[in-house]
Amino acid sequence: MVDYEAPLSTEERKEIVELYDGLRVADVVDGLDSYGFGRYLNQMSQDIQALHHDYDSFTHQIMGFAHTMRYLPTNKPQHNPDEWSWEEVHSDWGWYDEHVESPSDIQDHDVIVFEAHNIPVGMIGSYNGLEWVSEGAEGIVTNSGARDTDELVVEGVPVYSKTRTKPKWHGRTEFSDEQIPVNVGECQVRPDDVIVADGDGVVVVPIEYAERVGEAARKELQSDQEMRRDLYEDAGLDPDWTLE
To answer: Is 4 exposed, middle or buried (0-12, 13-18, 19+ CB in 10 A)?
Structure first.
């Protein structure tokens, strides 16, 4: 284990990103196994899955550093429907904004990780998902839901969520805390822990072990590519781009 003091420097983040470039969730899980993490809950539950899959270039895959958020079900009242019209609600967002907080100071290669246990709302939508990615985030992971899902897919925003849903989060949830340890998919996720996600699901690497696990995972990938290349040749098939 290496010493770790948050936050990571720009150079440290760059080195880890380069180390994990192209690694699959399966490789990272095998790398964790190499260091005795097999019995620990570093793999998020399988109900947290990719909203969409891009099999041409794997743009749905994400790797980055956890930027954590915690939300709770709200116990605060909204506006009085007898006193507010639709126009008045949408011209005065105060009752929304006091409950909602977006991630602050997003850095390149952040993965926004939302803890919102059993809150059936769209924590991620076509606007905020695209906004956060445009600010540098690689994608979003949540144990809650996503909405505007057709648009999110068209936008190419990588989202890993527990469900697809309809209601907005405004007025139904309230911000609790940011950049603290959270429990998402039965995994503890801390700020700067490494998140890797693909068609197999989501895995979390404690930042203290990120370098050693990444090196082991790289060997796993290289070994797999070599063996599959031999199989392709034996079958008379042209190697595909996943062998590069």
So the answer is: middle
**Are 33 and 213 spatial neighbours (Cβ–Cβ below 8 Å)?**
no
The CA-to-CA distance between both ends of the chain, in Å, stands at: 31
Contact 173, 72 (CB under 8 A): yes
3 state SS for 95-158: HHHCCCCCCCCCCCCEEEEEECCCCCCEEECHHHHHHHHHCCCCEEEECCEECCHHHHHHHCCC
Provide the whole-model pTM.
0.87
Q: What is the pLDDT of residues 118-174, one digit of tens each?
A: 888 888 999 999 999 999 999 999 999 999 999 999 999 999 999 999 877 777 788
Using an 8 Å Cβ cutoff, are 230 and 58 in contact? no
Alpha-carbon distance 118 to 125, whole Å? 17
Q: Give the span between the Cα atoms of 139 and 159, in whole angstroms.
A: 6
